[in-house]
Write a structure and sequence with these properties.
Elements lengths: L3 E3 L7 H27 L18 H14 L6 H12 L7 H25 L30 E5 L4 E5 L6 E3 L16 E6 L5 E6 L5 E6 L8 H7 L1 H21 L1
Parallel strand pairs: 1-5, 2-7
Antiparallel strand pairs: 2-3, 3-4, 5-6, 6-7
């Protein structure tokens, strides 16, 4: 359908957030170069998807990278305290300082990238994780076949616009159907709306009127992005605007009915 345009105004200090993120990402990249081969040797993939869920990642690797990021941010604490915080998190107790939680998220992501790297190097057959090419077409295509985390980011790649899901946790990418809703599989074009904003060219938000879910789609033929995680983060305002738009449509529908 014809894209709907919004008048979203971005007010967040994106540059400041990016500088903090960039500092942490450089530390993660250095750790992967220096310690990646060591931890790769300890990884053991499952025979079927998910190949290495977050809960099965080596805890010591996560703590090691998390502490490195804390040191970079001048917020070093005892390893024993980090382990206790990690255990509490696994028990569902999620109270944590936002910046500490961000560094933990990036540590988990950094270790998960090793699993993604392993899967890519092993060359797992496409039909094993692409629902459209397997015997399980009902499988949820937004769940990463490697780390088992949910992704709502799709990328259209050059040259022909092949549609790939991109996991912002482990960086793995897998092919999905070119058209239709990524959640319910509906291919009714009249029920799938695309919202965009002139401040973010090359990015659209797909909203399915069948299941009520939404996803972000980056057209890589129009917008080059070296880091899809950051691209997703810097455009979170589109997510918020989409949620408000959906709420408004529901409110209008309720008034009519």
């Amino acid at each position: 359908m014809t894209a709907k345009k919004s008048k979203l105004v971005v007010t967040e200090n994106v540059e400041q957030a990016y500088q903090k993120y960039r500092q942490l990402k450089l530390e993660v990249d250095d750790w992967l170069r220096e310690r990646g081969s060591y931890w790769l040797a300890s990884l053991s993939l499952n025979e079927e998807s998910p190949y290495l869920p977050i809960v099965d990642l080596p805890q010591d690797a996560i703590i090691e990278l998390w502490q490195r990021l804390n040191i970079s941010a001048k917020a070093e604490i005892a390893d024993s305290t980090l382990r206790e915080m990690w255990e509490q998190l696994n028990l569902g107790k999620t109270a944590m300082d936002p910046e500490m939680a961000t560094r933990l998220q990036m540590a988990v992501s950094g270790v998960a990238k090793l699993a993604s790297q392993t899967v890519n190097e092993k060359g797992v057959p496409e039909q094993k994780y692409n629902p459209r090419a397997s015997e399980s077409p009902g499988k949820n295509v937004v769940v990463c076949p490697v780390c088992d985390e949910i992704s709502t980011l799709a990328v259209l790649i050059e040259p022909d616009g092949k549609r790939m899901m991109h996991c912002t946790t482990c960086n793995f990418e897998w092919p999905v159907q070119r058209t239709g809703c990524l959640f319910c599989g509906s291919e009714d074009s009249k029920k799938l709306l695309y919202l965009d904003n002139e401040a973010f060219p090359g990015i659209e938000m797909g909203v399915c009127e069948v299941c009520g879910q939404y996803f972000k789609e980056i057209d890589g033929r129009r917008l080059y992005a070296a880091d899809y995680f950051w691209e997703d983060m810097r455009t979170l305002s589109l997510n918020y605007a989409t949620e408000r738009w959906i709420e408004e449509q529901v409110r209008k529908d309720n008034q009519i009915n």
